[in-house]
Amino acid sequence: KTHQIRIHLAESGHPLVGEKVYIRDHFRHGYESLPSRRLLLHAHTLGFVHPTSGETVHFTSEPPEDFARELRSLRRERAQRRAI
Fold first, then answer.
1. Which of 61, 73, 74, 84 has the highest Cβ tally under 10 A?
2. How far apart are the C-alpha atoms of 18 and 40, rounded to whole Å?
3. Each residue of 46-84: pLDDT tens digit?
4. Cα–Cα distance measured from residue 15 to residue 6, given in angstroms and rounded to the nearest whole number
């Protein structure tokens, strides 16, 4: 599923931060990608109806520390650019 998400987001003009594969069109249109040490893709909350029990199941997971660190860094950079 990760590749589907990456492709669909990139094709809609919203590639993931750190995307290096599915950004050909993004560059062709003159946009730059946001660099990152890795792809920033994380599902904070997932939910679905269990196929056997019919019970609605929810899972929550905080982003890993390296993900949160990259996000904080990008937010600081954006704030600095706005202040200029």
1. 74
2. 6
3. 999 999 999 999 999 999 999 999 999 988 988 888 887
4. 7
